[in-house]
């Protein structure tokens, strides 16, 4: 069957020549499969050209059916012979691209089922190209077989390209931003990005996933996946990012993720970046233990005994976002009254904060100049006052009702005033009061039961009154009275 | 601070200005209708692009990142100290800051290190010295154990030495941070860092920031008062209470600790209060004209200071007069009216807190216990320093607590850095007195009052008390935490100067120490 070399047509010589690297490719892929471990710089350097080189066979292969079909038209009949040449180019470039792909994969940048599929389809694509070329040379009667093979090749190329795209840009790279209407039309689920949270019965779900959620999701999840790395699901975590796997089960040293979080904070590679809060020592320890235990998704929570408890996380202070429009709306009703009172008591009445419509009033600086009548003038804003200081003013029990009208008071100071038990008695309805200061007044132990009835009270300042430090206190006031 | 804006001298510029104008006119005249139409279309396009670009520019290109956007601190020009509400509901409404200038030794007060005591007198390990800079230590110094016995006390069981027997009774009110850290090992820059957030001159002090952010309720007293305890002015100088780039109306007002608190407050003989008033009215009128003409905020400061001084004539003298306190109270503070002492200042601090002063800064001095002289020896001068502050601080805590003021007053005690675990050996030789050198790597500071978790210790140093091993707190972290208690996100309390949204915590990231908040 095999003709001797000199009798071979030029065409068959090319076929044989192309078959050699394809066979070599098969041997490489079978004998030296990429296993995810890092390798030589050269392989990596050359491999990086794979994403560029792949576009050559894609273009060439797509061109072939165009040339073939257009050539059927009598006006473009001259195109048909070119198809042969282009198909040859496609074969050569497919072999080249597949070889580069193997280099890239072998150098340790990628691994996993997605990569394996892409690799094999790439190798088969090169083979198919060669097959098409051979078939085309024997067109006598084989035109049907050739067109089937060509169609298959284009199909395989599409599939290979799609898988490759998924590898480098994420699994949903084509559909991620598909508009909702189109989604519906194609009967896809309305939101493909939903990642169900992992089970909290597993160590991964209960201890590891929450760490990523807290520290990493802003840059590495559905909305943003820097370096093509997503940490919002176990699968995407193990798939890694554009620089390959980030977790090597059982191997802490070569797990890129672990290296990054344990670098000095000043290192360019340090994660989390941009002044985001670093992982605590306990969190780093958890990830270390988990990787050491083969980074399994199913490992039960109790499997790792000496894991640090979650309570060791530091107390982080955050600021609420203030809705200033809502605050302004809330203030609108009382603003005129506040403005008028501010004119009367400059610098003594103001909002508790820029984020609220609650008021603070400090009359203590006016001293004796502040009398019952002045206090009465606060009536229009009484139920907005939460902190009030009437210390050292001239107010008397006549103001009791006006003070009691400040229903939302949290803190009330009556230091060195002429008030007596009567005023304190009228305060029994102040269910928000946390701090009551009657230091230096003529109040007596008779007020204690009233004060004991205040549900939120935390401190009663009763120094220099007739209440003695050794007086018997109601149980509700235990540890709350200061003398 | 310059007294007036620098303005170009008109006379000098007269000649060039004229030729300059000629050139400009020539340029304008050369412009034709065609030039105008040509640039018009391009100009309009550029304007349009400008609006587009502003909309789509990444945040980094925007003039002020949104997270740093300033809150509105504009006030009526005639009343620069008027009260503004804090950003958020605040735990603390005023601060009393007790600074022990010179840096007290944490190893003689709060840091119990039995291992160091065991190794007392041995050569310091080389690892302690590698890459370190010291003010005075030379060669290989000896380790120095604590000079005083320690014991646990209070319900919180915190360790304290026998040098602070009065303060010890309040141990359950204190939150002791043993892991304070600074990057300055000389007094002046370290003090500047503690008080202005920056080791260089020209930055606004903590009190100035607070006054700028919140104003002050009592317009008859300065909102930021500084009291020294005799002795010497801190090495950092008056910049420690300066306003830096903030308008100088927000700077601290240093009051004298004995005699008249503020000099020349009294009217001179034959000048009555009404006469003084009418004089001030005329001066104000002139100053207001100046402000209308030049718009320099320093003019407003000048007007405000005249007015403040006039009102202070009545109130400051009263507030500072501790003779108005009963003898029993003065005895608790160990205060003696008439002398310049920390004890008197503590009592004044309480009186000022009651009168709504926003920021009260007390300095004590002489804590630089190198051991180079008796006054700086851990076994002589240091003992005296301790006894000078111990009883007054305890009395201040007593009073604040009893009167309910501790609820919304933040009290801070600390120095500018710590002291070494090694005995100082100036010139490489054993010195006559016992002392320690500067250690910026770890120092102890305590807080009490508004919003602070009482009776806890935060952070930890190694067995030698030399380096922090747990929860380091940078000075900027402390500042961020204190501003948080005062109702501010430290990023938002800012002031645009030299192209930067200047803030107390400066440019490095600061962390609010959530662990010490109640």
Question: Could you explain the architecture of this structure?
Answer:
The complex is a heterodimer of chains A (483) and B (518). Chain A has 18 helices and seven strands. Chain A is mainly alpha-helical and 483 residues long. In chain A, a hairpin with a 7-residue loop joins strand 1 (349-351) and strand 2. In chain A, helix 1 (10-31) packs parallel to helix 5 (79-106), helix 4 packs antiparallel against helix 5 and helix 5 packs antiparallel against helix 6. The longest helix of chain A is centred in the N-terminal third of the chain and has 31 residues, at 139-169. Chain B is globular and about 90 Å long. With 518 residues, chain B is of the alpha/beta class. Chain B is built from twelve helices and 17 strands. The two termini of chain B are 40 Å apart. Chain B has a domain at 94-151 and 163-367 and 387-461: Alkaline Phosphatase, subunit A.
Largest pleated sheet of chain A: 7 strands, mixed
Tell me, what's the shape of chain A? elongated
Which two chains form the greatest contact, residue counts included? A-B, 34 and 34 residues
Under CATH at level 1, the class of the domain at 94-151 and 163-367 and 387-461 in chain B stands as Alpha Beta
Outline the fold blueprint.
The complex is a heterodimer of chains A (483) and B (518).
Chain A lengths: L9 H22 L9 H7 L2 H4 L1 H18 L6 H28 L6 H25 L1 H31 L10 H6 L17 H13 L18 H6 L16 H7 L18 H12 L31 H9 L2 H10 L4 E3 L7 E4 L9 H5 L8 E5 L10 H5 L6 E3 L7 H5 L9 E3 L10 H5 L6 E3 L19 E2 L1
Parallel strand pairs in A: 2-3, 3-4, 4-5, 5-6, 6-7
Antiparallel strand pairs in A: 1-2
Chain B lengths: L9 H21 L2 H24 L37 E7 L13 H5 L7 H4 L20 E4 L4 E4 L13 E7 L5 H10 L9 H9 L9 E5 L24 E3 L17 H22 L2 H24 L6 H7 L8 H13 L4 E6 L16 H22 L6 E6 L3 E6 L12 E4 L3 E7 L6 E3 L1 E2 L6 E3 L2 E2 H11 L8 E4 L2 E4 L15
Parallel strand pairs in B: 1-7, 1-8, 4-12, 4-15, 5-6, 5-7
Antiparallel strand pairs in B: 2-3, 4-11, 8-11, 9-10, 13-14, 16-17
């Amino acid at each position: 069957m095999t003709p001797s070399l000199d009798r071979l047509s030029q065409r068959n010589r090319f076929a044989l020549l192309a078959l050699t690297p394809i066979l070599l490719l098969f041997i490489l892929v079978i004998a030296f499969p990429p296993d995810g471990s890092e390798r030589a710089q050269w392989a990596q350097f050359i491999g990086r050209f794979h994403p560029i080189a792949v576009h050559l066979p894609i273009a060439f292969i797509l061109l072939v059916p165009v040339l073939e079909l257009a050539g059927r038209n009598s006006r473009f009949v001259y195109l048909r012979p070119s198809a042969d040449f282009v198909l040859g180019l496609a074969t050569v470039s497919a072999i080249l691209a597949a070889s580069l792909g193997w280099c890239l994969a072998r150098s340790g940048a990628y691994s996993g089922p997605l990569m394996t599929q892409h690799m094999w389809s790439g190798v088969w694509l090169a083979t198919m190209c060669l097959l098409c070329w051979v078939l085309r040379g024997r067109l006598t009667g084989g035109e049907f077989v050739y067109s089937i093979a060509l169609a298959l090749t284009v199909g395989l190329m599409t599939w290979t390209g799609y898988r490759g795209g998924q590898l480098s840009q994420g699994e949903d790279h084509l559909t991620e931003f598909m508009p909702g209407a189109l989604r519906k039309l194609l009967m896809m689920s309305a939101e493909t990005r939903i990642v169900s949270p992992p089970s909290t019965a597993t160590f991964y779900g209960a201890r590891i996933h929450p760490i990523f959620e807290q520290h990493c999701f802003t840059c590495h999840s559905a909305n943003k996946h820097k370096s093509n790395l997503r940490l919002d699901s176990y699968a995407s975590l193990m798939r890694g990012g554009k620089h390959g796997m980030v977790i090597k089960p059982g191997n802490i040293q070569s797990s890129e993720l672990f290296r990054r979080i344990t670098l000095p904070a000043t290192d360019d590679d340090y994660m989390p970046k941009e002044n985001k809060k670093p992982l605590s020592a306990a969190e780093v320890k958890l990830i270390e233990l988990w990787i050491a235990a083969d980074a399994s998704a199913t490992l039960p929570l109790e499997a790792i005994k000496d894991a640090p408890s979650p309570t060791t996380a530091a107390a982080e202070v955050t600021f609420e976002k203030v809705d200033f429009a809502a605050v302004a709306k809330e203030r609108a009703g009382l603003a005129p009254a506040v403005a008028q009172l501010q004119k009367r008591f400059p610098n003594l009445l103001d909002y508790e904060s820029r984020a609220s419509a609650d008021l603070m009033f400090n009359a203590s600086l006016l001293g004796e100049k502040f009398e019952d009548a002045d206090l009465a003038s606060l009536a229009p804003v009484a139920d907005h006052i939460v902190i009030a200081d009437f210390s050292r003013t001239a107010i008397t029990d006549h103001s009791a009702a006006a003070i009691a009208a400040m229903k939302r008071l949290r803190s009330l100071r009556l230091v060195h005033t002429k008030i007596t038990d009567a005023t304190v008695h009228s305060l029994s309805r102040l269910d928000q009061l946390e701090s009551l200061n009657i230091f230096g007044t003529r109040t007596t132990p008779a007020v204690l039961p009233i004060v004991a009835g205040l549900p939120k009270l935390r401190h009663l300042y009763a120094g220099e009154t007739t209440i003695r430090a050794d007086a018997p206190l109601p149980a509700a006031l235990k540890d709350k009275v200061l003398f | 601070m310059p007294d007036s804006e620098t303005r170009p001298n008109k006379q000098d510029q007269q000649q060039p200005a004229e030729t300059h104008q000629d050139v400009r006119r020539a340029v304008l005249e050369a412009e034709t209708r065609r030039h105008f139409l040509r640039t018009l279309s391009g100009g309009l396009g550029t304007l349009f692009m400008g609006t587009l670009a502003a909309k789509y520019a990444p945040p980094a290109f925007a003039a002020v990142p949104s997270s740093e956007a300033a809150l509105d601190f504009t006030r009526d020009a005639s009343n620069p100290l008027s009260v503004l509400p804090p950003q958020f509901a605040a735990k603390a409404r005023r601060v009393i800051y007790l600074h022990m200038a010179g840096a007290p030794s944490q190893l003689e007060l709060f840091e119990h290190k039995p291992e160091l005591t065991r190794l007392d007198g041995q050569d310091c390990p080389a690892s302690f010295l590698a890459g370190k800079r010291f003010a005075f230590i030379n060669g290989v110094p000896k380790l120095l154990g604590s000079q005083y016995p320690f014991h646990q006390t209070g319900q919180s069981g915190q360790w304290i030495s026998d040098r602070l027997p009065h303060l010890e009774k309040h141990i359950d009110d204190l939150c002791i941070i043993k892991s304070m850290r600074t990057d300055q090992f000389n007094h002046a820059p370290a003090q500047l860092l503690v008080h202005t957030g920056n080791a260089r001159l020209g930055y606004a002090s903590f009190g100035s920031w607070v006054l700028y952010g919140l104003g002050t309720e009592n317009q008859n007293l300065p909102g930021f008062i500084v009291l020294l305890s005799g002795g010497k002015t801190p090495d950092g100088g008056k910049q420690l209470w300066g306003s830096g780039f903030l308008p100088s109306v927000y700077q601290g007002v240093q009051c004298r600790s004995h005699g008249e608190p503020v000099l020349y407050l009294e009217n001179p003989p034959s000048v009555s209060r009404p006469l003084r008033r009418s004089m001030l009215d005329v001066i104000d009128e002139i100053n207001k004209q100046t402000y209308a003409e030049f718009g320099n905020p320093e003019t407003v400061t000048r007007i405000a200071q005249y007015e403040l001084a006039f009102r202070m004539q009545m109130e400051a003298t009263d507030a500072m007069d501790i003779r108005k306190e009963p003898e029993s109270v003065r005895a608790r503070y160990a205060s003696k009216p008439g002398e310049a002492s920390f004890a008197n200042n503590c009592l004044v601090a309480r009186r000022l807190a009651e009168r709504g002063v926003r920021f009260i800064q007390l300095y004590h001095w002489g804590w630089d216990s190198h051991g180079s002289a008796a006054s700086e020896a851990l076994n002589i001068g240091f003992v005296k320093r301790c006894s000078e502050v111990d009883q007054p601080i305890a009395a201040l805590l007593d009073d604040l607590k009893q009167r309910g003021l501790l609820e919304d007053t933040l009290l801070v005690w600390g120095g500018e850095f710590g002291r070494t675990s090694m005995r100082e050996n100036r010139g490489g030789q054993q010195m006559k007195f016992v002392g320690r050198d500067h250690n910026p790597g770890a120092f102890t500071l305590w807080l009490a009052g508004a919003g602070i978790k009482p009776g806890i210790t935060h952070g930890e140093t190694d067995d030698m008390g030399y380096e922090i091993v747990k929860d380091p707190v940078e000075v900027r972290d402390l500042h961020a935490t204190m501003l948080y208690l005062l109702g501010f996100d430290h990023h938002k309390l800012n002031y645009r100067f030299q192209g930067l949204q200047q803030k107390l915590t400066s440019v490095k990231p600061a962390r609010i120490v959530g662990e010490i908040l109640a």
